[in-house]
Amino acid sequence: MDITEAQEAGRAVAVLDGRLDTATAAMTEAKLTEMLKQGGLIADLSGVRYVSSAGLRVLLKAAKQAKEGQVPFAVVGLQPPVREVFEISGFDKIIPAFGTRAEAAAA
Amino acid sequence: MSPFRLRLPPTLDSVTALQEALDSWSEEAGLPMPVAMRLALVAEEVAANVANHATGASYFEFGATLQAEGVRLSLTDDGPDYDPLAHTAPDTAAPLEERDPGGLGIHLVRTMTRDAVYAREGGLNRLTCTLPLGG
């Protein structure tokens, strides 16, 4: 898992590339937690083709942290296998998802 | 295609090792990408479950056999009696504040596979299920 930082219309973006799973959950969680302390965050998952329950836990924690801090958190670029896991888990109802970073930043 | 079988110590490193070995097997078996993804996911969830919960197990063994109706999967470990299917499914309609991350892994396994059965046999935990090839 590689995570790079970007900006979209003044909003911080975490660009994730790789598997979000048991092996990468801890480092991903640390990075998202740190970035969310600075304000709202968009997690760009275009480069993620695999998310397991360990990865879902990371995104759930990020969404809860954002809610507590009253800052926006959204995901963008869900690939079909990731979308399937989101839908089975009901995450499509609790984490705002957009097609592009621009749409997420404007929401 | 010969069946996949791998026995590993119940650690989180083993979960990664299992996935890597299974990816090669899936490719050799020519599994369609969505099926290979679900297979990797189901394997991770059941193996991580043993690594995280089965204190006292000295190994887990994951098996996958390609059959006409799907990939027949089995996960065996020598830990204490533990039925992962006994947990109630998480409430996937609950709002964010009430969502608890527990149970999501087994929920994914139950949803993606058919005929999931747990049995305690000869001092071993044995979980079997079938991953459909279509859909």
TrEMBL record, chain A:
<dbReference type="InterPro" id="IPR036513">
    <property type="entry name" value="STAS_dom_sf"/>
</dbReference>
<comment type="similarity">
    <text>Belongs to the anti-sigma-factor antagonist family.</text>
</comment>
<dbReference type="InterPro" id="IPR002645">
    <property type="entry name" value="STAS_dom"/>
</dbReference>
<dbReference type="Pfam" id="PF01740">
    <property type="entry name" value="STAS"/>
</dbReference>
<feature type="domain" description="STAS">
    <location>
        <begin position="1"/>
        <end position="107"/>
    </location>
</feature>
<protein>
    <recommendedName>
        <fullName>Anti-sigma factor antagonist</fullName>
    </recommendedName>
</protein>
<dbReference type="InterPro" id="IPR003658">
    <property type="entry name" value="Anti-sigma_ant"/>
</dbReference>
From TrEMBL, chain B:
<dbReference type="GO" id="GO:0005524">
    <property type="term" value="F:ATP binding"/>
</dbReference>
<dbReference type="InterPro" id="IPR050267">
    <property type="entry name" value="Anti-sigma-factor_SerPK"/>
</dbReference>
<keyword id="KW-0418">Kinase</keyword>
<keyword id="KW-0723">Serine/threonine-protein kinase</keyword>
<protein>
    <submittedName>
        <fullName>ATP-binding protein</fullName>
    </submittedName>
</protein>
<feature type="domain" description="Histidine kinase/HSP90-like ATPase">
    <location>
        <begin position="9"/>
        <end position="129"/>
    </location>
</feature>
<dbReference type="Pfam" id="PF13581">
    <property type="entry name" value="HATPase_c_2"/>
</dbReference>
<keyword id="KW-0547">Nucleotide-binding</keyword>
<dbReference type="InterPro" id="IPR003594">
    <property type="entry name" value="HATPase_dom"/>
</dbReference>
<keyword id="KW-0067">ATP-binding</keyword>
<feature type="region of interest" description="Disordered">
    <location>
        <begin position="79"/>
        <end position="100"/>
    </location>
</feature>
<keyword id="KW-0808">Transferase</keyword>
<dbReference type="InterPro" id="IPR036890">
    <property type="entry name" value="HATPase_C_sf"/>
</dbReference>
